[in-house]
Amino acid sequence: MSVLLFPTMSSPKPLPENLQLLADAILQYEGAEFELIDDGTSLLGKVTVNGRVFYPSAVKVPTHPLNSANAAFLVNDKAFTYTLLDRAGVARTEGRHFYARAHPERYGMPGIPEAHAYAAVLGYPVFMKPNQGAFGYLADVCFNEAEITKQAEAIAVGDHVFHMQRAYVMPEFRVFCIDGEVIFGYERTRPTVVGDGFLSIRDLIKQINSRAEYDVQMIANNNYLAHRLATKGYNVDTILPAGEALSISAAANISRGGEVSNLITSDFPPALVELATRIHSEFNIRLYGIDFFASSFSGTDVNVIEINQNPSLKGVSTVDYDFAISVWHQILKKFAS
Question: DSSP for 58-108?
Answer without folding.
Answer: SSSS-S-----HHHHHHHHSHHHHHHHHHHHT--B--EEEEE-SS-GGGGT
